[in-house]
Every structure is written in C-alpha cells, then in structure tokens.
C-alpha cells in the first residue's frame, strides 16, 4: 500500500473504524512497516478524532419543550378552526344540494334559451316597428312610405 | 396495547408505530415521548453545527414543529430516526449558512490561539485549558456541511451510511467532506502551534 492512499484512509475509514476485510489487513501491515504513517495516524487520532468524541452531550432546557407544546397547541387551534369553517361550507352544500342543482340547471337553460332566441326576437320586433311607423306616417301625413319611394317617384314624373 | 406500554418510551428505538400514529392524530402526550427520545440528538447536533445555545434552541423548536406537522404524512418507508436526522441536519446547516452570511468574517482563530497558548502539543493544550471551548472553536472554522459530517460522525457516532442517508448524499461525498474537514483541523492545529513557537 502506498503512503498516499494510507494517509487518505487514516483521515477517513481507518480512523472511523469503517475499514474491514482485506483493506484493513493491508492497512495494518503498512502501519507496522511505515513509521511516518504510524505517526500520522496517532496525530489524527489525538487531534481530530478523540477531542470531538469527548465533547459533552448538550441537552435542551425544559422550556424548549414548553415552547414547542405552546406552538403545537396554537397550530391545532388554528387548524381546527379552519376545519370547522370547511365543514360548515361542506354541510351547507350537502343539505341544499338538490335546490342548488335545480337552480343551476334552470340558469343554464335560461342562458341557452336567451342566447338562441333573444337576438331574433329583438331584430324581428324592430323590423315590425319600423314598417308600422312608416305606414302611420304615410296615412297621417300623406307622405310616401319611404324616402327612396319619393325619389323614384320624382324621377319617374320628370321622365314622364 | 395499553397506554402504559404505548407511552413507556425513553429512546429512539422504543418508539412504536402506535405511538407515532397517536402523535400524528394530535396526541400531545404521545408527541412528548417523541420529543424525549430525540431532543438530545437534535439539540446536540444543532448546537455543534450552529455554535450557540439560542440558535440551537431555535433549530430544535423548528425541527420538532416540522416533525409534528409532517408526522401524519410519514409513511414508515424510512425509519423515523433517519427522517429526524435528515430534518435536523438540513435545518442546522441552513441556519448556520444564514448565520455565517450575517456574521461573515468573524473568525475564532484568536480564541483558539488563546486557549492553546502555552504548551507543545494540541492535545495536551486542550486538556490543560478548556478542551470543549477549543474543539468548539475548531469546529466553527469549518463549513456548515463539513461541520455536520464531523458532528454526525465524531460526536453522534453515526456510520458513513447513516450520515449519507441523513444528509441525502453519496457515501463518497461523506468521505470527502470528512477528509477535508480533518485536513483543515490538522492544519489549523499546526498553524496555532507554529504561531505560538
């Protein structure tokens, strides 16, 4: 085993006890032979492995749980309020489902009928109204039924 | 299962699926058992990664609130332990990154030098002065991702496989981060000793 690879393993798998089988045997054999790698392994263990393993375990203060508990209770209250509002809306639609459905159908039918017959009815009425107006003007004032009629009459009279 | 059996939990491995289901349905007493089992791990990792009590408490609170909110969606595809490890590591790393952006340029090099000031060997110095403070000071010189790997491995004793799962990384990335972190720490120790000589 080359020293370069041995040092890499010392910084990782070997020092962390993750090296197994043939690689571990090769590593141990190399450390027996190589004083430099042995010294490096000791340095790594003493300076960057053991001091961290000996760090005291930190525990949170009891009030941390109290704060978490308060937040959870707040969130539960908010979510239960949201759920009750949703339930009210859902119940309303469930109770009046047939009535709402009938109203919707009636509205859709109304829209369809109006869009189909509405324009025709309006147009027909206006045409009818126009002819009635011109007829009345003709009868009452003795005027021709329309301006186009009067023009053609004058031309005809000129040529005749 | 009786309530006594259900709630008789002290460690992560004692948590039963029934207890998790109860907690996910809003049972605060059941959730307190989850907190009891994991709080030490969560707080310890958060404290070592963010470097102070206030931020560690904030991270701990956020981790447990996320666990509480998402517990009903937890499908037991992975273990709860791995899931909590993952949330904790990500929260602590993100918090530490935000923190370092806010306090960019603040170096604890002087603190370490002070602690390691009068003897020959870093290890001896640590024993003579304040080992805890020195190690914490050294940890603070690492990037949050490297710190998380070091803490999960050397403080919490997780295997490479568990670290990879917790951080959502390839196992070789975990190796690389540990190697870089340790090289930095060795270099830092040597620089401190050289400066004092």
Overview in brief:
The complex is a heterodimer of chains A (160) and B (197). Helices cover 83% and strands 0% of the residues of chain A. Chain A is built from 6 helices and no strands.
Tags for this entry?
heterodimer, A: 160 residues, mainly alpha, 83% helix, elongated, B: 197 residues
Description:
The complex is a heterodimer of chains A (about 160) and B (about 200). The mean pLDDT of chain A is about 80. Chain A has about 160 residues and is an all-alpha fold. Chain A is about 85% helix and about 0% strand. In chain A, α1 (about 5-10) runs parallel beside α3 and α2 (about 20-35) packs across α3. Chain A has helices at about 5-10, 20-35, 35-55, 60-95, 95-140, 145-160. Chain A is built from six helices and no strands. Chain A is elongated and about 140 Å long. The model of chain B is unreliable at about 1-10 (pLDDT under 50). In chain B, α3 packs across α5 (about 80-100), α4 (about 55-70) packs across α5 (about 80-100) and α10 packs across α11 (about 170-195). With about 200 residues, chain B is an all-alpha fold. The radius of gyration of chain B is 19 Å and the shape is elongated. The termini of chain B are far apart. Chain B contains eleven helices and no strands. Classes of the chains: A mainly alpha (about 160), B mainly alpha (about 200). The interface of A and B includes residues 18, 49 and 68 of A.
Please write out the topology.
The complex is a heterodimer of chains A (160) and B (197).
Chain A: H1 3-11, H2 21-33, H3 35-53, H4 62-95, H5 97-141, H6 147-159
Helix pairs in contact in A: 1-3, 2-3
Chain B: H1 3-7, H2 17-24, H3 28-50, H4 53-70, H5 80-102, H6 109-115, H7 122-128, H8 131-139, H9 144-155, H10 160-167, H11 171-196
Helix pairs in contact in B: 2-3, 3-4, 3-5, 3-9, 4-5, 5-9, 5-10, 6-8, 7-8, 9-11, 10-11
